[in-house]
Amino acid sequence: MSLTEDQLQYSGGAGRWFWPKLRALPPFVRFLFTGILATLVHYVVLRMLLAAGLSMGPSNVLGFVTALMVTYIGNRYFVFEARRGHVSSFAGVAAGAVTGAFIHTSLMIGFTSGAVLSFLAGPAADFGGRGLIFFWQQVLTLVGEQLAGVMTGESLLELSTGFSFVIASGTVAVLTYCWNRFVVFKA
């Protein structure tokens, strides 16, 4: 199948001829596509560095920084179709990413070390902390039981790392979307 010249014609904005149907989607959906790709890049780098013996903090930061490149290119050209210069756009995305990396890494270390659960059991217990701990334990137990035969060799810490990554990534994704949409790439 060959593309016609009309299909290949550049119509303003990077990539419009490449994914016309995806570009018709709302910005938040396009942000999700970009975020999923960046999250996959982040997670692969994180797991590779952990397997190589690097600790959680540096592994997570390096994975986050690698995903920043995917995020910037995707948000600038695919999600928000920015018209601002690269320096100011990248500076804004980088500022959000540094903040996001701090939040993400703090959540990852907090969940995998038990610090978040200790906080929820202690000072936050009367404000829903006990319920969150119960929920967290039930999820880990349920998934652990369901995958017990499949996940030979996986420790509870590795399972907890995966769930922690999902929670931290989701939290940072919402914050990052708001930052990029309303501050960096505002219309």
Quick take:
The chain is mainly alpha-helical.
Question: Your description of this structure?
Answer:
- This protein is mainly alpha-helical.
- The protein has one domain.
- Helix content is 74%, strand content 0%.
- Helix 3 (27-51) runs antiparallel to helix 8, helix 4 packs antiparallel against helix 5 (86-113) and helix 6 (115-121) packs across helix 7.
Helix content: over 70%
- In whole angstroms, the N-to-C terminal distance is 38 Å
Radius of gyration: 20 Å
Mean pLDDT: 75
List how many beta strands DSSP finds: 0
Distinct helical segment count = 8
What form results from the Cα inertia axes?
globular
The domain count comes to 1
Secondary structure category: mainly alpha
Classify the beta-strand content into a percent band. under 5%
Q: Note the main sheet.
A: none
Order of helices and strands: HHHHHHHH
SSE diagram, text form:
Blueprint: H1 5-8, H2 20-23, H3 27-51, H4 56-79, H5 86-113, H6 115-121, H7 129-146, H8 156-184
Helix pairs in contact: 3-4, 3-8, 4-5, 5-8, 6-7
Task: Name the descriptors.
8 helices; 74% helix; mainly alpha; 187 residues; single chain; globular
